[in-house]
Fold each of these.
Amino acid sequence: MDGMTDLLIAQSNKSLMTWIGLGVIIVVGLVIFGIIAQFFGLWLQAFMSRANVGFTDLIGMRLRKVDARTIVLSRIQLVKAGIPEVSVNDLESHFLARGRVPNVVNALVAANRANLALDWKKACAIDLAGRDVLEAIHTSVHPKVIDCPDSSGTKKSIDAVAKDGIQVKARARVTVRTNIQQLIGGAGEETVIARVGEGIVTAIGSSESYKAVLENPDLISRRVLEKGLDAGTAFEILSIDIADVDVGENVGAKLQADQAEADKRRYQAEAEKRRAMAVAREAEMSASVEENRAKVVLAEAEVPLAIAESFRSGHLGVMDYYRLQNIQSDTGMRDSIARTDDKNDKKT
């Protein structure tokens, strides 16, 4: 009986293990089926396109939280465009670096079709630097036109003054294409606009007359292009076309008028200074005259004292005194007659 019981227990345990194993197999099978069902469409699409993307790659993308559809479709696009050297790992790396994989792939395909020198690493570097690499490729194929000055700004023209003093207002259109090799670290449109504006001002300022600028506006374009303004920028300047040239104010005459007004004010100030100095000098001379008159009065006041002293000392007699009085009277009369004659002369 014990042997029979042990045999039944053993058979029961064996059946349980069988069912457990079968359950595990079913679960594993369901998991595998779910994975296959999830990635089968992408795998089949890649397989039929010979993109060489395996199930393990798809599972790894899922674990790394990478968008498998984006990677597979980008890989297929590259293979069909004849760029098979970009691997799935390269695509995943750029995706994990928060790059725009479809944008870079489209740019790489466009560059390959246009025979432009652009490899995967360069395209990824441009994308991660914040530049739109696809737009850069499009600009290389289809050159871009930039208004100088910028049409969106408040300034509508570039103003400069020729050597004859006449102001000239110009507007230019700059045709550029992207320089892929200098796209990273190269200056943008603002720098190109600023340099072209500076070149136009220099070209107009070196012209002898505003008439020369109006007759030959292409001289400005040639002089500006000779300066190599696209050095260090992300663009290559193809042409600079002067769209409009107008005559402005006569700045030279205005400056001369302002200078003349300033000179007049300066001369008036100097004349006023001299007048004030003359008035001060006149006042000084008047004070000096009054001072001398005071001295004369003081000296005349001592004459009677001297006469009295002469009387007391016996050096002056009475007849001498009367003769002195007569002389003084005659002198006073002559002075009075002379003043009367002077007044009559002035009246006549």
Amino acid sequence: MTAHQEVSRDPITGVQIRIGVMGSASEPADPPVAALCRRLGRAVAEHGACLLTGACQGLPHEAVLGAKEAEGHVVGISPAATLREHVETFASPYREYDVLIFTGLGPMGRELINIRSSDIVVVIGGRSGTLGEFAIAYEEGKLIGVLTGTGGITEALSSVEASLRKDTGAEVVYEGDPARLIDRLLVRYQSPGYVCPCWPSAGEVGRMKVKR
């Protein structure tokens, strides 16, 4: 992140907001979709947020490359237990990350870490694995963005959401322009009316602020 970029901070903790990007890691992206994902990553960096992914190939890595083009801060949550396993078993990238966290939990096991470590979750393309990440984020009441026009499960998520009929506190934003999606998500997350179910109670927040 360049010196002139202002960091987007969590209104409760004051730390940098983490935007998790979840999507297909198994198939090469069509050039137009890859371009959208790179623009998404650049938008995260330009808005001063931290980009978090599963440290995988595919669409999330396109977002990582976009974030690094804008000198953003990138964290990867690896399914591997070591760098060697990360590279040799999962054939995953590592050079573009500022921080790599090795979970040793495998691709499905680390999904919970991905979601719970993200303040905002963005879905791009993807198939059943990405649908699972959306379901976890929805169940845990996260603020979720869906980058439309990226194919895969994103084409069905509005219908899936409508069929859930369960109030978890989650909010889902659909948008086809990457920069506008990130802007809308951050404005909502930092607005006075937004409350995440994962936040402490008002009394605990007050005590946290006093301690600072």
